[in-house]
Design a protein that fits this description.
Layout: E1 8-13, H1 19-31, E2 35-40, H2 50-57, H3 73-79, E3 83-89, H4 91-99, H5 105-112, E4 117-121, H6 125-129, H7 131-142, E5 146-147, E6 151-154, E7 160-164, H8 168-179, E8 192-198, E9 202-203, E10 209-210, H9 217-228, E11 232-238, E12 248-253, H10 256-266, E13 272-275, E14 282-284, E15 304-306, H11 310-321, E16 326-333, H12 337-348, E17 352-357, E18 368-374, E19 380-387, H13 388-402
Parallel strand pairs: 1-2, 1-3, 3-4, 4-5, 8-11, 8-13, 11-12, 13-16, 16-17
Antiparallel strand pairs: 6-7, 9-10, 14-15, 17-18, 18-19
Helix pairs in contact: 1-2, 1-8, 3-5, 4-7, 8-9, 9-13, 10-11
Length: 405
């Protein structure tokens, strides 16, 4: 903490075109009560000048090891930080950090920091995919740093691909998720997790569908918290109108069959699979090719067929292949919550079942949630009402306990 009692964040900025996005990240950090010290590289100042960083942070900008030498900035800045967040992090900076070089103020800060360190890379796709960069990323992650995978999108010029700096709002959420852990190590580093979120839609015709009220907010909270804990995260999102979390690969789907196929494909090689999506139990036996019109007569009944049980199918695949994989399910109940939850846990065969009561303004679309996490051994862990990130973190605590060493 700084002498003002605010969390002390060091924002490192490297020389890439995405440096301008760090201005918005800085604004969000300062406006939410963080004391931010900006440490730009010399190359970063070619994109955004020192006055901009000073005006947005309200603090002098540290630009070199020879500035304010009596304060020993190359040591003190890192020592006093609660978080060092580098955005954008160039391929050059990642290489220097992995090798332990200290040829400017930012790399000196990285070596002296004893707090969580987050890198948000941004570069051309070929640079990100180069074996040298991937080796440097692996090295940094092995040392406890959180390296967020870049987003897919428009890059410099006409190029498009993976390498884009995530949206500043999502970078801010990533910083907030890491800070709320209070300096604890990223305990999911080296783990791959797959999460489903949102609600499936089953087409009646090109206009209408059978669906549910799930917003996907709980699944996205699970994805953000897992990324902040160092995991490689894939999020299978069913009809979710939320921005992609920073560092998370998002696979969009629509129907229950789409979701089942995507989860079956993505679960291979995963250490944990969390099914938080609300999946329709039934779908129309046939979907009309064009919009069904009113003609004055009674509407034809919609024949329904049962959708596959995605959660039970994931458990069956795991067991059939003998994988050491933790599978977590979610159950939304309106009444007899625990009884229905325990019956569902027995049917599904998963390792944990998160049961929450829905309806009456609870769970769906809200910012908070509460639940009971049931285990096959009869355990029941109550998670009190609070932000959905709290529930997500508690779920990952329970998952981490079950992951093999």
């Amino acid at each position: 903490m700084s002498d003002t009692g605010k969390p002390q964040v060091v924002l490192g900025v490297c020389g890439g075109i995405a440096a301008y996005k760090a201005c918005e990240l800085l604004r969000r950090l300062t406006e939410s009560g963080h004391a931010v010290r900006v440490v730009p590289t010399e190359e970063a100042l070619r994109f955004v000048g020192e006055p901009t960083w000073a005006a947005l942070s309200g603090r002098p900008v540290a630009t070199g090891v020879w500035d304010a030498v009596h304060e020993v900035p190359h040591v003190r800045i890192g020592q006093t930080a609660d978080l060092v967040f580098v955005a954008p992090a160039t391929a050059n900076l990642l290489a220097k950090a992995a090798a332990g070089l200290a040829d400017d103020l930012l790399t000196n800060t990285l070596l002296t920091a004893r707090c969580p360190v987050v890198f948000a890379p941004a570069m051309h796709t070929e640079m990100w995919e180069h074996p040298a960069t991937q080796a440097n990323v692996a090295t940094l992650r092995s040392r406890g740093a959180v390296v967020l995978d870049p987003a897919v999108g428009r890059l410099t010029g006409a190029d498009t691909g993976r390498g884009r700096l995530p949206d500043p709002a999502e970078l801010f959420e990533a910083a907030r998720m890491v800070l709320r852990r209070g300096g604890r190590a990223p305990d999911l580093a080296g783990r791959r997790v797959v999460i489903s979120a949102g609600g499936t839609r089953e087409a009646i015709d090109p206009v209408r569908f059978i669906g549910n009220h799930s917003s996907g907010k709980q699944g996205y909270a699970l994805a953000r918290t897992a990324a902040a804990r160092g995991a490689e995260v894939t999020l299978v999102a069913a009809n979710v109108a939320l921005p992609d979390p920073a560092g998370v690969r998002v696979v969009p789907v629509e129907s229950a069959l789409d979701l089942a196929d995507a989860m079956e494909a993505e679960r291979r090689g995963a250490d944990a699979v969390v099914m938080s999506a609300a999946v329709a139990d039934f779908r129309p036996a046939a979907s009309a090719a064009s919009k069904i019109k009113k003609d004055g007569s009674a509407p034809a009944p919609v024949e329904l067929v049962e959708n596959p049980d995605v959660l039970a199918g994931l458990v069956a695949s795991r067991d059939r292949e003998g994988l050491a994989q933790t599978v977590v399910g979610f159950a939304a109940e309106t009444d007899d919550v625990l009884a229905n939850g325990r019956a569902k846990l027995a049917r599904k065969g998963c390792d944990l079942l998160v049961v929450n009561q829905v309806g009456g303004g609870r769970a769906f679309g809200t910012e908070d949630n509460q639940a009971v996490v049931l285990g096959p051994d009869g355990t029941a862990v109550e998670i009190p009402r609070g932000p959905k990130e709290d529930l997500a973190d508690r779920v990952w605590d329970l998952v981490a306990e079950r992951l093999p060493d």
